[in-house]
Design goal:
seven-stranded parallel beta sheet, six-stranded parallel beta sheet, 15 strands, binds uridine-5'-diphosphate
């Protein structure tokens, strides 16, 4: 049988890319007749991110998986840089003709796999007469939310702000609780972002031949059932396949990561609180001071990933050469025996270490899945994107997190500080109390592992995707 070629198109975000590569490996493990061509985009203004992508590509040596590097735009001075998502949106549009060129020369092309931002590539698939599959690196509830707003707008002719109606709480079929307005992601509430980007992404999801979601049936049963049963979604949707949790299985073996794991080896079980805010999280100096104070006041052992805020709004964070310069005077000395402040660490390895008992997280979807997989409860501190919604889901819908904050308004340039007292309280609750939360997260951890095993819910769902893909050829 001739090989069927799939093309994977992903935005240059570590979370999206790592998950998509893991997805590709799973597809290749399950079928001998597929090859996957991965198109790699890079952000010219993010050298550190580019270096990480390059090391990820270099470390990925898999038969039938091939990389193609797209050109890096030379002059982006006229692009909007105030918002990372908009910048990436422009990068994706810039790449479209290059991608059209590349894809139309691929022999045996049988479909595209795109991430949630690349729906514009469906045009190319249509021109070439092949189907598109979306791989959603966020949860099913997020998918349901954007599809809900898109339906309200397209079928009921409502626009922002009527979209959210006048009440402060929204009834959205994929949530069992009313959703407060202040946890709605900015990509749905900001007029321009919604109309230029998110609305079109949502329309794109409906045009796909299938949507794979990095989640598992046992975790998001309510949202997934709503897709099947609620008239709002039913019959207007392609099949939805929960295929996760798909986690990053690669690790950069840096000195930093070896030191960190060695330090954890010397700590008692469940004694360390881990603070990490994803690939884009960073704070101004006032906020850094509040975190340091909150940690000291809590008295808990800690491992804190602290990265440098970008010089320009919309930029990407970098690594500090010397954390001592940004921390309160004497902090590192006073906490030397109980804590460690570090740069980028292999998060999954840290979360799976028995010494880690709690996770202060921005609730990015990868971090959420990783903490569930490892059975580590979260204290929520969302920063942007759909993270507020994830935090709400973790605390209110699933009961597997405690709250430091649920509220972050990206549009507000002057963020209120999250005070040391609030951070201390959240950490104490996470590490000293929260027994029911800890029990529940362990339960979901077991279920997540079963879901991926042969015969498990995501394993079976994946079989259906493969069958669907192979039927195109
Ligand atoms: N990550 C990591 N080390 C760090 C920070 C992040 O390994 O110091 C990984 C983390 O394990 C996760 C990904 O980067 O897989 C971040 O993805 P997530 O969706 O949580 O957040 P985003 O970066 O998209 O905001
Ligand atoms: N892991 C890692 N480095 C380590 C230990 C674990 O990257 O030093 C990753 C590993 O790839 C796995 C995840 O962390 O995906 C959870 O590891 P664990 O041993 O808890 O579970 P497993 O997947 O082996 O059942």
């Amino acid at each position: 049988m001739e090989e069927a070629a799939l093309v994977l198109i992903v935005s240059p975000l570590m979370g999206h890319l790592t998950q998509s590569l893991e997805l590709s490996k799973l597809i290749l493990q399950r079928s001998n007749h597929i090859s996957i061509e991965v198109l790699i985009m890079k952000v010219p203004t993010d050298p550190e991110g580019t270096a990480k992508i390059q090391s990820l590509v270099a470390a990925t040596d898999v038969e039938h998986l091939h990389f193609h590097h797209l050109p890096t735009p030379e002059d982006t001075s006229k692009w909007s840089t105030t918002n990372k998502g908009t910048f990436l949106h422009q990068l994706i549009n810039y790449q479209k003709p290059h991608i059209r060129n590349l894809v139309s020369n691929i022999k045996g092309l049988s479909g595209l796999i795109i991430d949630l931002m690349n729906t514009t590539m469906i045009d190319i698939a249509d021109e070439l007469g092949v189907p598109t599959y979306v791989f959603l690196t966020s949860g099913a509830a997020f998918l349901g939310l954007v599809l809900h707003f898109q339906t309200v707008q397209d079928e009921h002719n409502l626009e922002l702000p009527e979209l959210f109606d006048i009440s402060n709480e929204l009834h959205i079929p994929c949530f069992s609780n009313p959703v407060p307005r202040n946890v709605l992601p900015t990509i749905t509430t900001n007029k321009e972002t919604w109309s230029v980007r998110t609305l079109n992404y949502a329309r794109g999801y409906r045009k796909a031949k299938g949507i794979m979601v990095n989640t598992f049936g046992e975790l998001e049963a309510f949202a997934l059932n709503s897709f099947l049963n609620d008239s709002f979604y039913k019959s207007r949707l392609p099949p939805i396949y929960p295929v996760g949790p798909i986690l990053k299985r690669f690790e950069t073996r840096t000195k930093n990561s070896r030191d960190t794991i060695e330090w954890l080896d010397g700590q008692q079980e469940n004694s360390v609180v881990f603070l990490c805010f994803g690939s884009m999280g960073s704070f101004n100096l006032d906020q850094v001071k509040e975190i340091a104070d909150g940690l000291e006041r809590s008295g808990h052992r800690f491992l804190w990933v602290l990265r440098q805020a970008p010089a320009n709004k919309g930029g990407f964070p970098g690594e500090f050469e010397d954390h001592g310069l940004v921390l309160p005077e004497g902090f590192l000395d006073r906490t030397a025996s109980i804590g460690k402040v570090v740069g980028w660490v292999p998060q999954l390895a840290v979360l799976s270490h028995p010494a880690v008992g709690g996770f202060v997280s921005h609730c990015g979807w990868n971090s959420t899945l990783e903490s569930i997989w490892c059975g580590v409860p979260i204290a929520t501190w969302p920063l942007f994107g759909e993270q507020q919604l994830n935090a709400f889901q973790l605390v209110k819908e699933l009961g597997i997190a405690v709250e430091i904050t649920l509220d972050y308004n990206e549009a507000n340039e002057h963020q209120p500080l999250v005070r040391a007292e609030q951070i201390e309280k959240g950490i104490r609750e996470l590490m000293d109390g929260a027994n029911e939360v800890r029990r529940r997260v362990k339960e979901f951890s077991d279920k997540s592992r079963l879901a991926m095993k042969e015969g498990g819910s995501s394993y079976l769902s994946f079989d259906n995707v493969i069958q669907n893909i192979c039927s195109n050829h």
